[in-house]
Fold each of these.
Amino acid sequence: MNIRRSFTFTVLGLLAMAVLLPNLSAAPVKIRIAHMWQEGASAEADAALAVLKKLQAAHPEFEFVSEVVVGDEMRNKIRVDVAANNAPDLWQFWAGGVLTDYANAGVLLDISKYLAKSKVVKKADIADSSWATCTFNATIRAVPRNLALGVFLANKTLFKKYNLKYPKTWAEFLAVGKTFRANGVIPTNIGSKGGNPSHFWYGDLVCQYTSGLAGTANLSTKLDFTAPGFVKAAKYCQQMAEAGMFPDDPMANGDWAPSIALYAQGNVAMCYTFPWMYGVFTPEMIENSEVIQLPKLPDAERDPATFIQGTVNDAYCINAKSFDDAKKQAGIVLAMDALTYDISLSLAQMGNMVSVNNAVMAKVDLAKIPNKMMVKATQYNLKNKISGSPMIWQQLPDNKLQFDYQSAVDELWSKSINSTEFIAKVQASLNEFKKK
Amino acid sequence: MPGSSFFLLEPTTMNILRKFRWAFFVFVAPSFLIYTYLVIFPIVSSMAYSLTKWNAISPAVFVGLNNYEALFKSKDFAIVMTNTWIGLGLALVIQVGFGLLISFLLYQTKAGYRAFRAMAFLPVVLAPAAVALMFVLIFNSDIGPVNKILESIGLSGLKRNWLSDKDIVFYTVLSPMIYQFIGLYVIVLLAGMQSIPPEILESSAIDGAGSFRTFTMIIVPMIWDIIFICVTLITAGSFKAFEHSYLMTWGGPGVRSAFLGVYMYLRTFIDANFGLGCAIGMVILFISLAVTMIFRAVVRRLDYQS
């Protein structure tokens, strides 16, 4: 009898423990963060991950899980995750038209809800123009992350060797290109694979015309690619391709890393790139590079000495469903604060990014930035009061339009189509979008 | 029904099977369920999605055959289909041709046989991504060795922009694809040759058949089934070819170097048009099946004639 009673109490005790234990030592709430920082891949990645580790140590009640996907593959990951109803709670993405589908489908949180809870991010600290890149139907759907201003560099040694002056006009630009070509030097590093970095260059030429600037700014609403600025800039790009101003094989030398690799080898006279590539510049490359202006087109209405392609590039998104989960909300706010403020500050202090958050940038001392390429470019931009011009790709309101545009730029660069066909191709894609 | 062991079972076994018919379902059900879930269901599901407009985020909207209509009217799709057929033709000729040749040479090799066999198979085990990137560097017109070699041997006229010239970029992308997998067919065909009874070859040698005659009149006819397997694998591989083209050129410029697999990926994930992507998937499925069936019929006929 006693044995039976003991057995009964033991079983009941075990059952009670099984029920109570999980509640006594509650498992941390999981917060999934999809980002692009692969451990050990770069100093930037390690610095960002160090902030996340610190956050984890300070908040054991949450488990901050990193889901790392580098580059364009993030687009696939998020789309497939959303389709499978398995989207992360927060993710790093791009600003602009690439967010449209998610905003329209209600996947993204109305950011005003996050701002109301955030302890560090204030709406006023970020310019309205930056918020505009993440605003859909008058609602902010993502927090803009960084400003990316392009830079155009000249290889000092090569210019000195051939006794050439840095070009300011189109004629001078083509003339130095001719001299370099005659001596086996590739005039610029501007290849084109997936439209990089070529579509930025094209956009820069477009913005030398008032019609181009307005056309780019209104592209998402007017869907018109036939403004004179677009047409003229395409003609000049065709002229550049025919004059051998680009690498011979723009596909092989396109995209970010290959285009910089070509410049790093010292056989390219001028380099057009963006801050996310500054990390690969060696001290020798920086020392040997002079920041110069883009050449002014013969009939340009705007002076490229005062602007360059640059706008908000990345943004952070919050899964609306996750934010509505009371258990997760506090963790999401903590993680988002870390992403938008702490990581941004850390990376800005290293010189790996320019944050859109003025409160972050106020804490950055330019003189102490270790990334000297960022220092060099920023000093040039401040001295010459360089402003950012809008980006065509970002203004295109649909993934297909963006890809068709990138693909057409590749064809223009590789001389598969001429400038007229290029304009017609992009406009046809816009017309198709209009019909839908 | 010759060849079907089921009908050769003893009457008592047949009786047992008839009595416990349900046992058949018990044994088959797990495999059937897994196969249905992993193969049949995705096919049916893709077929259904191919009739919709769907961006994977908003609900799918039924559009009937619009995706197929758009596909067959698309100039890009025509270029991609042409690329795929040319790719298939060249892959069949080169991979089977060289595969047969190299495997026959290996078959006759005594010294260093293992080393040569390993060398032939080595490219197959390399990651396609690594091979693709290696070929991007090799064919890079600005810094790669191909143009430099052509120049150094006085053939500057043959220099090309291998990855940007719309007329040749497709062949440039095709070359590592074909090269990388020849080794696989060498090994498959070699195994086929090694399964031929040696007495047959000995008799032919006694009858005075040389290497060429032995190869064409004995070995090739005797490994028809193996060649057919290679043809099937190459066909399926050609229709879903992806890595080399995507990594080397993104299928570009435009879609000049894209195959159906790349085109499907671009439309599905980059354009976020999952309905159209599924329609392309269906086209790949049906063409692959049709081509395989045609080849099978041809092989059967040849087999019958021989």
Amino acid sequence: MRLTASELACHRGGRDVFAGVSFTVASGEALTISGRNGAGKSSLLRTIIGLLRPAAGRLALEGGDPELSVAEQAHYLGHQDALKGSLSVAENLGFWAGFFGAPSIDLHKPLDAVGLAGLAALPAAYLSAGQRRRLSIARLIAVPRPIWLLDEPASTLDAAAQVRLADLMRAHLAGGGLILAAAHGSIGLDKAQELRLGEAA
Amino acid sequence: MSWLAALLVRDMRIAVRVGGGALMGVLFFLVVVTITPFALGPDLALLKRMGPAILWLAALLASLLALDRLFASDHDDGSLDLILTGRAPLELVVAVKGLAHWLTTGLPLIVAAPLIGLLLNLDATADAALMLTLLVGTPALTFTGLIGAAISVVLRRGGLLLAVLVLPLTVPVLIFGVSAANAAVAGPAPFGAPFTILCALTLASLVIGPFAAAAALRQEME
């Protein structure tokens, strides 16, 4: 499986956010997207998932399921956690698992993978920012999809959770997945390509 | 179709939990109808004549009450982004959210209506007819309201815009709902004609509402 972007451009609010962005990511590979604030890291991820329409260029996925769009084979982990405070941890994860087509999975495994198994019955409103982020990450484990689009995935995580996230990402890559992550620093992957936005683009 | 059930269950759970709109809507309905006799005075004939109109107005306002957060809360916490990237057609997502909203705010009003009919001096037949008009008419209120909820999703204080946008659109539903209920309560006009038109309005809104709301959401998420 190979995700290729050629000369992608994004135009928002009357200005060019980025233009001429090209990259190729294959199975088992990771790409970190860096750049100053406002360089378009989040916009690039939102363009790939289909929430923004590219102003120019094209995006192609080879070797995926031809019946499905890129968005349907990708997980998007944005700045917002997409959790409902009045639902419990397990209900939040169960909803997204059901919505993304895996209704009858065992929720214990993904919750355990992010260290939240003991809090399954707690309403999500009581979670800390880092725990909310970990619950969002559990969604990626619960429903297997080959492409992970992560927008500053480690931003609110403590050191131990960052290590755990890096382990999960390595396992995903080892299983043939691919990862695109917007990040200011390292995300703990050794062999990641780097794409710098906003420099002589 | 598992996503459909997942979304329906989630929205209904949120509505009946603390801070959800279900209980608030039915309480608002009960309070508005209860205080009206105090304002109008103990004139039984007047109450009986105005009863259907009061119940219908209260039902209209109550179903608008929770509607402004229907998409806005999903937009604010990022859920709408994920929903838009899902496999589910947006029109169906909107329709399922509308259904969940109606089941949690419209249906309780209908269940509470006979109780409240007592306060307005309505007899059993009139109550039954009124419940029937509410049962048929309130889905139209919800599904018309979906359009306003989708348009006001990115606005702060969207609830005000929602009311201004949606209330004029509900005028036909109000007219035929109240006239059907009045025909059953007081006669002599026939019940069937306005009731049939009410059914037609609901069916039209069930089709137009989700498509218009989905188009508005797509436009706004760009």
Amino acid sequence: MLDVPEWPGHTAGQHLDVRLTAPDGYSAVRSYSIANAPEGERLELTIEELADGEVSPYLAEGLMPGDPLEVRGPIGGWFVWRPEQREPVQLIAGGSGIVPLMAMIRSCALSGSAAPFRLLYSVRSPQSVIYADELQRHAGRGVGVTFVYTRGVPEGWPHPPRRIDARAIASATFGAAEQPSCYVCGPTPFVEAAANLLVEAGHDPARIKTERFGPSGSS
Amino acid sequence: MSDERVVSPGFTGRRRAPAGKLPPGQYVTEDFPVLSATPTPSIPIEAWSFTLTTEKGEVRRWNWSEFRALQSEKIATDIHCVTRWSKFDTMWEGVAIDTLLAGVQSEAQFAMAHCYGGYTSNVPLADLRSGKAWIAYGYGGKDLEPEHGGPARLLVPHLYFWKSAKWVSGLVLMREDQPGFWERLGYNNYGDPWREQRYWGD
């Protein structure tokens, strides 16, 4: 949680640049998705600590409550959901790609929007779900939440672990005929796969917004 | 950004980059990250073409085999993404924009790259001339992969890499500058990594 005086406000899906500066002036900046809905001057970031990261380990373990932090934002005007949008919204998350999509779900709830939302969330196992309890609450008010487990499934799950595929798209997402706006966020190979599945299922590529992070896996 | 930095107690950082090779605020990656705002379009070679349109509406068009028959160059360059990674010594193959513009009568000072999938990016024409930019179809000795912009992408390595538009389908020469896709969505109109022109107002 960050308190940012004079924060100009943001739109769900936008990100924030965080700058760390060493005593000798060296600095490093990384972008992180903003996790909370636009509300006042408090920002929530959900940061995955990368073992070999330069910035995330410091944010996870070095930074203490009350420490100042230099930030800049909000950044990005494309991968965003605005409460004025009325059409169905299909969210597809891989791993920590849930963060900007969570901001959209929260923004939808906060604004009282009637736009139908569905989330298809690919995780390694039930233990790796971020925001598990909160997602359950959103499911209770009508957000369609479906999990794809890639490594370990919950007890009694009807099939073994598997990656997102055409069956998952067909059974758990809005069809192309409903013309949803689609937002896909996650590691690059996941986003490539999920976006291609949506296109193959008939969705207009112009309605599919993507945000990728991490290594490409192919180079 | 302001000149007064907030010092983060206990943060030392890495400082791995050779001096003079890494623009401010960047870090070096060995990987080749992919950043795209849309799904990767599928563009069959048979359907591919590249179109150059002047400000007077004159058109030059090449299909894939015509384009591949143009004189090509090998390019070794560093690339710099606005999301702060830089990759050194990347190897490309493609056709210089100078080659495409040879003999074209134009007084335009700006160009808009248009792409399959609808992406656009604007660049001053001077930044595309004089051996500074190419339409690249080869990377690392192989065909350029679709997720990196294949069949072909614009390559303008002295500007942030969003200017090097993936899946490029043409250039439109313009008398007056206009913002492209990211340039309308908060990113800098010019994008010089050495002046750290990332966002509006930089």
Amino acid sequence: MDATSVFTDFQFSDVGFLLEAAGRTLLISLLAISIGTVFGCLFGWVLSVAKTAGEVTLGLILDVFRSVPLIIQLILFYNFFPIIGFNLSPFAAGTVVLVFYTSALVAAVARGGIDSVSISLRRASRSLGMTYWQDLRYVVCPIGLRAVLPSWAGVALGVLKDSALVSVLGYVELLRASQILITRTQEPFLIITVVGAFYFALSFPISRLSARLERRWQYD
Amino acid sequence: MDYTFHWRPVFRKLPDLLEAGLVTMEVAVLAMLVGVVLGLALAVMRMSGSRALTWFPVVWIELARNTPALLQLFFFGFGLGAFGIHLAPFLIVLCGLSFNNAGYLAETFRGGFNAVPPTQIRAARSLGMTQTQAYVRIVIPQVLRVVYHPMTNQMVWSVLMSSLAMLVGFRELAGETQFLASKTYRIFEFFLVSAAIYYVIVKVILAGSRLLSWRLFRY
């Protein structure tokens, strides 16, 4: 390639750029998954307690987040915040939307977990003198967690991969970094493969771990 | 709040959006059909037990499940250009979504087939059924029951994922919305209406699936 070309080859230093971007992908997904899980468990509990009333209020709202593509949600909220007077950075807006999205998915999972504990078991714990919260903490949590941990891991993996969509707002995470590099190097195949390997390296260990836990807990 | 909503441009373009919604459904259903066929093939190959055949579905399934769908679309859109293959936007979307659907559905089907104990096939054979009869009358109906709900979910995902098409220049609902929004600068209004259309599409699919399941699983 001649010296005057605007394009430059893929260099070793670009791996550092991609690693930094992978760190940002990890940061935004960890934030979304941890905060979203807390909210999701709370919502799931509300849904399982307030059956019909919860379903027509909270359930309906959460359902919207599950039925509208994430990319539309991101663009919608990114353009909505300035209307109500907040100017959020792409990172902040992306995090907020991903937290909503994660909590909507986790709420369904958490609700399933709570409902998977049979009502007679819970009555038994209450009649042994446990308070409502003790029953929730020492009976429902351990049993429900086992039932839904694989689905929760599925949600977490989904959010990790869906965080790629925050790139449409301009936040430079892994996918956006790949587009920047493709524009500069004009080597789409190489870069998509490298970035795919980065995502694979982030996601594959978690999916193996959850499959292993699922198998082990089945035989307990 | 000093923003004035302008809904008129959106309502004027509503027929275009609805038409684009049909395109979304078309591409999602097509990708689902191709995904089911490929997913079945992958599941059968994976269960065949032969080493030479197993690596291919394993690589496909793990790649489809552990990388973002958007990256898969970009691979079919830009990555293949390195080999001189340039697909039309519609084909990029169809290939990307089918690749992803097949990876997920293959695991669903494998789980479904594993849920039917092999002793049932032997029992059916010893009652005088042929191998085909045993599969058609005993195995498939049970597998269908197991995979029906996950397949409905995958169909919904197929619709939601098809919105990524707007990033590779295909004008289904999301792409059309972006096109119209950038022409009129009413980004929020257009995307709100588009979100509503997506919601309706997903609800229609779920309702249809429930009706079909009443008809299919009466016993």
